[in-house]
Amino acid sequence: MSTQKTLVVLAPQPDPRHLSDIAHLAEAPHLDHPHIDVVRMRGANPVQGPSVLERCRAHGYDAAYVNTGQAFADFRLLVSDMDSTLINIECIDEIADIKGIKPQVAEITERAMRGELDFSAALRERVALLEGLPEAALRQVYEERLRLNPGAEQLLAACQRLGIKTLLVSGGFTYFTDRLKADYGLDHAYANQLEIVDGKLTGRVQGDIVDAEAKKRLLIATRDAMGLRPEQVIAVGDGANDLPMLREAGTGVAYHAKPRVSAEADIAIEHGGLDAILRLFH
């Protein structure tokens, strides 16, 4: 595969002046725009990358430097976080809402996702606050509040069509990952197991916590079992606990992520849906 880079700009309502400005800053000699909302600038100088991507963000466009000629079909494994990445909510916050304690749980969640708290300790602290809640609250969250994020169905459908395996790794709970796996045909799913006794949450998690390092290990184990090279793996996440797996993947994508994650990922999607990933590659 060519190591030459192409700057891809996703501009749903492109302004020609903006695109000319970006092309000039990117030192891009060739502009290809087979689709009006996807502009490919071949030969863009990656040295200008940070300034160019910042300019694109200022214009409200998602953009990324990708290997020229790289297709989405070149990936063989998609690894995704669940909460606020594949789906629209933080499940634990919505469970807490049913108990009337969402503000205090959501505040801990936010700090954990920014990387300000130890993830495992923060998870145990939040789960402890859910003690006594009936298991039916989990079903209520799944049926009434949980939705796939925009573009997720298109992304998963493309994976199935192209034979790309899917791995869902979550610091959330198996109650939700298992149902998503069954409902959307995912290949693998891993998360934390809530302890439930007599139909009520005990406030404890069973087994080891799926934290940042566990997510990375699961990516590596699945990749190795499939005999893949790192560049054949693409991973998507939004929180600090996703960074190790994003770094381990050949391509790491930050999706509407915390600033630190967007800054460190190979690709940051801040405006579009998950189907933006498909449009970045041929």
Provide structural commentary:
This is Phosphoserine phosphatase. Pathway: Amino-acid biosynthesis; L-serine biosynthesis; L-serine from 3-phospho-D-glycerate: step 3/3. It catalyses: O-phospho-D-serine + H2O = D-serine + phosphate; O-phospho-L-serine + H2O = L-serine + phosphate. This protein is of the alpha/beta class and 282 residues long. The protein has a domain at 1-70: Alpha-Beta Plaits. The protein contains 13 helices and 11 strands. The protein has helices at residues 16-26, 49-58, 82-86, 91-99, 102-113, 119-128, 136-144, 152-162, 174-184, 212-226, 243-248, 259-264, 276-280, and strands at 5-10, 30-35, 38-42, 62-67, 77-80, 165-173, 188-197, 200-206, 233-237, 251-255, 267-269. The strands form 2 sheets. A 7-stranded mixed sheet has the order 8-7-6-5-9-10-11, sandwiched between helices. A 4-stranded antiparallel sheet has the order 2-3-1-4. Strand 9 (233-237), helix 11 (243-248) and strand 10 form a beta-alpha-beta unit. The longest helix is centred in the C-terminal third of the chain and has 15 residues, at 212-226. The protein is elongated and about 65 Å long. The two termini are 13 Å apart.
